Amino acid sequence: MNKNIDIKTLVRPNIERLSPYTSARDEYKGKEGVFLDANENPFGVVNRYPDPYQKELKEVICNIKNGKTSQLFLGNGSDEAIDLAYRIFCEPKRDKAIVFSPTYGMYEVYANINEVELIDIPLDGNFQIDIEKVTPYFKDPQVKLLFICSPNNPTGNLINRETIFTLLNQFKGIVIIDEAYIDFSNEPSWISEIERYNNLIVLQTLSKGWGMAGLRIGMAWMKEEVLYYFNKVKSPYNLSSINQEAAIKQLSDIALFNSNINVLLEERTRMINELNKLSITKFIYSSNANYLLVEFEEADQLYKALINQEIIVRNRSKVVDNALRISIGLPSENTKLLNALKNIENEKESIIYR
After folding, report:
1. Which among 183, 278, 319, 331 is placed 20 to 30 Å from 231, CA to CA?
2. Quick check: 227 and 71 in contact, CB under 8 A?
3. pLDDT at residue 82 greater than cutoff 80
């Protein structure tokens, strides 16, 4: 099924009317020349403004991802794309967005910043979307955005693919699928469905699988007609030249990327096996990401005990009872955590049977 929505009807009128900032570099396509247009200092190593559309970096990414440069937005982390989606499509104090909790917290943060009402629909007991709970909201024309995180953060599971297809086919707004952790999963990316669904935006990042969190480079894949508005609203030079060059260099070593992913997947399996041997472990949720959500006995106390040993995990007990989210680290780091947990378990048992 091909689904084409009139994107202009979803865009805020002031954004539709907006005249974006332009520079002489937008008009001149060459790399060499006497550049006297941008009031730059002629001295220095990084004295020139970066490519505002990151053309070289996009080419490298698209060769790896089998995508089109004409459908790729690069931002200061995926967070920039999330923020822009609210700013492009949602009128403050009037329009709404849907999320499925527990999920990534920045959807809510940017909704609050942009004064957009957030409809929070809880996932079911298997951390899946209940179609019957969400479809009634599709009758409301002020519901403009729908966020799906898959693999989901913090739970680590994939959202059922057929459920997502149902939502794509029924929702008349913008569907944003956040694939920040897709490199740790065998699930095919939703990038391949962009040609069929012009209301689909797929978020990815270089922070997780590629290990470039410090560069803050997020990807958003979308149809050209939607990308037009993202380029229209974004800051002119949103990614530094240093970050673009560093990313291009690291993306050249695909063998290292694959090796690191394999190590992390092997460590994820080892962590599951070892954690299951502990009596303080109550449940380990299925994960397609580089972390595990684990239910422990007295997770709050365990979290503090680990902090005291300078081992930092994420306490998610406020969203999932007695749950800690544990990132998969280096083998030595994972072993240190496991040893700490074993010692805590032994100390607890000695107190009980003393």
Report:
1. 183
2. yes
3. yes
Q: Which residues contact 217 (CB under 8 A, 6 or more apart)?
A: 57, 74, 75, 76, 77, 205, 206, 207, 239, 243, 247
- Asked whether the beta carbons of 62 and 194 are under 8 A apart, the reply is no
Q: Say what angle helices 331-352 and 299-308 make with each other, to 10 degrees.
A: 120
Is residue 285 a contact partner of residue 157, using CB atoms and an 8 Å limit? yes
Query: Which residue from 192, 191, 135, 194 is spatially nearest to 163, judged by alpha carbons?
Result: 135
pLDDT: is 21 or 46 the higher one?
46
Nearest to 220 by CA among 103, 78, 15, 108: 78
pTM: 0.94
Asked, as a colleague might, if the bond just before 122 is cis with ω within 30 of 0, I would say no
**Scanning the structure block, which residue is given the tokens 């999320």?**
99
Q: What secondary structure letter does DSSP report for 71? A: G
